[in-house]
UniProtKB/TrEMBL annotation:
UniProt keyword terms in alphabetical order: Transferase
Organism from which the protein derives: Arthrobacter psychrolactophilus
Protein name: Phytoene synthase
GO molecular function terms attached to this record: geranylgeranyl diphosphate synthase activity
Pathway in which the depicted protein is active: Carotenoid biosynthesis; phytoene biosynthesis
Signal peptide annotation: none
Source domain of life: Bacteria
GO biological process entries: isoprenoid biosynthetic process
PROSITE patterns the record matches: SQUALEN_PHYTOEN_SYN_2
Length: 299
């Protein structure tokens, strides 16, 4: 019996449990990949989710104050760096991430800004345009770049397009984060005391604000699509599915009055996600004739 191999397999399975519990959208997109690439993406997601839960309420619900939350986050980052160095961690989620990072070339150039953004959530409640840009880079764009490290190693990735692929990955990460800011606008301000969009008071949020934010998100999604063509076919399909699931959220948010959006979280129904997955697998572009459904996806 190989003790390290057995431990690593168990750690990777634990990462799969995390994505299955926290995200049906990303979990669904992962299942379009081959087994090895799927495990890598699950390993990345699990670490990101654990860090996110430290700052988004799980630690506070356990009775930790802000300083204790920061200590937990610092400890997680230090353990991640040790895992990157040694290829082993007693924290199974960190161990799984380290396996992927060492196999695909993910290093502290990506993990450091990620943890910096996570720390921002503990103490910073208001953002300027500059700090928001920095926060989105660390909290979301670098995650896209981590996933890109996995995809670039797949057979069929077109060589010589690293810049376009990186811009696409960052744009998609930024779009995902902004969608989440928008759909969580009420909860972030009321429950967590966070105001991500500079100068925007959720109490005064209106349809003009919403249109401006959605236009910005659509620009990010458009930029993300431009680079997908350079991915390997399997990676392109997975990324397109994740893109289209969030595009469905954008389309649904467009139909919800601004003040209703502040009061509840918009979701895409399970049957609609299944339809989107079928559309992606059959190669039908979003928005083409015969690709939409009544009520859920069409105004």
């Amino acid at each position: 019996m190989d003790p390290l191999g057995h431990y690593s397999d168990t750690a990777t399975r634990s990462a799969g449990v995390v994505i299955g519990s926290y995200s049906t959208s990303f979990g669904l997109a992962c299942w379009t990949l081959g087994a090895e690439e799927r495990r890598h993406i699950e390993n990345i997601y699990a670490l990101v989710r654990v860090a996110d839960e430290v700052v988004d309420g799980a630690a506070a619900a356990a009775g930790l104050d802000a300083d204790a939350v920061c200590w937990q986050l610092d400890n997680l980052e230090q353990e991640t760096e040790r895992g990157l160095k040694y290829g082993y961690s007693t924290n199974m989620v960190v161990h799984a991430f380290a396996l992927t990072a060492r196999a695909t070339g993910i290093d502290t150039q990506l993990t450091t800004p990620f943890f910096e953004s996570m720390r921002t959530d503990v103490h910073k409640t208001l953002h300027s345009p500059e700090t928001l840009t920095q926060y989105i880079y660390g909290s979301a764009e670098v995650v896209g770049l981590m996933c890109l490290q996995v995809f670039k190693g797949m057979k069929g990735t077109k060589a010589g397009h690293d810049e376009e692929l990186a811009h696409s990955a960052r744009s998609l990460g930024a779009a995902f984060q902004k969608v989440n800011f928008l759909r969580d606008l009420g909860a972030d301000s009321a429950d967590l005391g966070r105001f991500y969009f500079p100068g925007l008071d959720p109490a005064a949020f209106n349809d003009t604000h919403k249109r401006e934010l959605l236009d910005d998100i659509r620009r990010d999604l458009s930029a993300a699509r431009a680079g997908m063509v350079f991915l390997a076919p399997a990676a392109r399909r997975a990324v397109r599915l994740a893109h289209d699931l969030f595009l469905a959220l954008v389309e649904k948010i467009e139909r919800v009055p601004a003040q209703e959006l502040v009061q509840g979280r918009v979701r895409v129904a399970g049957w609609h996600k299944a339809f989107i997955a079928l559309r992606v697998f059959t190669g039908v572009p979003a928005g083409s004739r015969g690709s939409s459904l009544p009520s859920e996806v069409s105004p």
